[in-house]
Amino acid sequence: MKQWWSVMVEDLNLNAVKSLQELPYIAIGKHLCGPATDLTLRCCLVDEKNVEQCGSNCHLKGLAIATCCHHLCQWKHYINKKYLTSLGIGKEEFHAITWFTSWAVDADHGSDLSDVMDFKLHPESIEKEECAEDAIGRAKLGFMCKQIIDTGRLMWLKEHGLETQLVKYVPSSVSPENHLLIASF
């Protein structure tokens, strides 16, 4: 009979997984809400302090993680605080940024918001125009905040020697949670 183990990603040491030792592997994650993305990135990559322990057993070749639920990100788990602090963003500002990310997913996504900067309004009244402009402005801010969070993640992966990119895998009209973080050695 096989035994199944349950483990939290923040406690997982991939180098201790015998079935992965000596084998190349890639990490794939979909819908890793907020801090789960950061915890997974940390889990997949060896800290400089642990390189000697890893030795030839580290065979991560790449990863693909669909980022989402940025509003749930937590300062204590965020992977690249150094990047944020270089921008003058501390713990309080980070919490504000995560709060604003919800505006990107709260918007009306009947059309693709990737062109939100070029979106032209033709409202029937001044009142409707102000409401629409507010909604678009909120969506823009939300997407910018999501981008700040994911850019820090990309930069952290680059610092660990990976080639990285953030790609849009479906239009915003399908899902506003539509970015895939890709990295490879």
TrEMBL record:
Catalysed reaction, written as an equation: cytidine(4) in tRNA(Pro) + S-adenosyl-L-methionine = 2'-O-methylcytidine(4) in tRNA(Pro) + S-adenosyl-L-homocysteine + H(+); cytidine(4) in tRNA(Gly)(GCC) + S-adenosyl-L-methionine = 2'-O-methylcytidine(4) in tRNA(Gly)(GCC) + S-adenosyl-L-homocysteine + H(+); adenosine(4) in tRNA(His) + S-adenosyl-L-methionine = 2'-O-methyladenosine(4) in tRNA(His) + S-adenosyl-L-homocysteine + H(+)
EC number(s) reported in the record: 2.1.1.225
EC category name: transferase
Keyword tRNA processing annotated: yes
Presence of the UniProt keyword DNA damage in the record: no
Any one of the GO BP annotations: tRNA methylation
Molecular functions (GO terms): peroxidase activity; tRNA 2'-O-methyltransferase activity; zinc ion binding
Domain Methyltransferase TRM13 as annotated: residue spans: 9-183
Keywords (A to Z) from UniProt: Metal-binding, Methyltransferase, Oxidoreductase, Peroxidase, S-adenosyl-L-methionine, Transferase, tRNA processing, Zinc, Zinc-finger
Alphabetical list of InterPro entries matching this protein: Methyltransferase_TRM13, Trm13
Pfam families attached to this UniProt entry: TRM13
Protein family according to the UniProt entry: Belongs to the methyltransferase TRM13 family.
Function: tRNA methylase which 2'-O-methylates cytidine(4) in tRNA(Pro) and tRNA(Gly)(GCC), and adenosine(4) in tRNA(His).
Protein name: tRNA:m(4)X modification enzyme TRM13
